[in-house]
Write a structure and sequence with these properties.
Number of helices: 5
Largest sheet: none
Oligomer: single chain
Radius of gyration: 16 Å
Length: about 110
């Protein structure tokens, strides 16, 4: 159910991003990332209240999240926003499928290193 809600909200946000008053790509990306960050902070607060402690955080986990913030979020999301402005939505909608394949392949490659 959570996966369906995430897919729906992503599609809704992608479609709605064309209707915003801002025409600056980085401003749109910043608005979307701020809203997404707010949702994740709320989710984190709920999980923490359910007993997930900060002591369970590991150094490799922090490195992985840092990589996702810098590469995936900032560069990837800005490129995605530019693509939304210049390409038709159905063409840009293929992004989640390609991203999933790349993530699985990278996961396999990195798991073989250990």
């Amino acid at each position: 159910m959570l996966v369906l809600a995430a897919a729906f909200s992503w599609a809704w946000g992608s479609h709605g991003s064309r209707a915003t008053s801002s025409s600056h790509v980085l401003e749109k990306a910043a608005m979307q990332m701020t809203l997404g960050g707010g949702v994740l902070i709320a989710l984190g607060a709920v999980l923490w209240s359910l007993g997930v402690s900060p002591g369970e955080v590991t150094v490799p986990g922090v490195i992985a999240v840092s990589w996702l913030i810098v590469v995936s979020s900032m560069l990837g999301f800005t490129a995605y926003t530019i693509a939304l402005q210049r390409a038709p939505i159905p063409a840009v909608a293929a992004y989640p499928y390609a991203n999933t394949i790349v993530a699985v392949v990278l996961g396999i490659v990195f798991s073989m290193r250990h």
